[in-house]
Amino acid sequence: MAIMITDWCINCDTCIDECPATAIVSANDSPLAAKECTYVKPEKCIECVDSSVPKCADVCPTEGAIVWDMPYTASYHQYYMDGQAQGKYNIRVHSKKGMLTPEMQPRPFRENISMHDRESHESVL
Ligand code: SF4
Ligand code: SF4
Fold first, then answer.
1. What distance in Å separates the CA atoms of residue 38 and residue 10, rounded to the nearest whole number?
2. Is the CB of 55 inside a 6 Å radius of any atom of ligand 2?
3. Which domains does the chain have, with CATH numbers?
4. Is the pTM of this model over 0.90?
5. Closest ligand 1 atom, CA of 5?
């Protein structure tokens, strides 16, 4: 993923239009069964690597709503597959390519973010 949205989110949806990767969807459009919060598609998030800060976090009014997650790369394939099995993610299944897993479609990530901050889901800003 890259980044994830927590249950601190107030579903204001301000972040949706800011995302350059169209990775964020409202709770109503969430592919998760619970549909409780605005959701980030990990298979699309590029961590806004070309910007100074992640654009979603820059506009979010709620501290703790947008946090770091693991890089969406082959090294974390099992992490995302476990999350998928737990209902934490719902990774898109492409009609021809199959599931867009981290192994099949790795995404760019910010190398300067520590694994500690990612594992402990620290606030992005
Ligand atoms: S801007 Fe923040 S509070 Fe608003 S929907 Fe996005 S993550 Fe949730
Ligand atoms: S970090 Fe950037 S690419 Fe990822 S969800 Fe936020 S705005 Fe979209």
1. 8
2. yes
3. 3-71+107-119 (3.30.70.20)
4. yes
5. 7
